[in-house]
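note to self: dont lose this again. the chain is below, predicted strucutre after it. 181 aa total, dont forget to put it in the shared folder this time
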Amino acid sequence: MSLLGVKITDGKGNNQIKYTKGFVETKFSICLFCDSDVEIVNNEKITLINNGVILCDCDNLYALEHQIFNDLPWNGVKDLIALREEEQEFSSIEQSLGDIVKKNIGTSLSKNWFTEDTIEIRKALGQLSTKKDKKQDKSWFKTIEKGYNLGKICLNYYDSMNDNQRLKQQIKILMEWIDND
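---
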């Protein structure tokens, strides 16, 4: 992307608004690719759009991981689980997922959960993939290499997604911004 004049920066969570406003002042063309799960950030998005920023965000109250687990075809979700298995045994993933399902909807994880595409499982996988505790960050995709692999999986399923799915729309916005800027 750098050959096309695109520079990627990390907004560091809530600081992304401050950084984006700083880039706007330099008159650079800006595309903000972000989550929608933080109210403080969401409240500033209209101001950024009014200042010429191209906004590429998730559905309301979703982090990117939640959006991805919501929108990818089920085989893509399975690929993400397989990617996680490089670091964590399937039985451990299944146990953690079962705990979240139990907490969310009060039922046990189905024995056939891996072959059943349900919104409850998708939501629980999104939560599991962003899980943090006091001891460590257990997020699934928060390194450059893991993010690269996540992106590869998403792009592999781009043509399989419906045009009205937010993840496909996000990818399209990014591609158009990169190609047209």
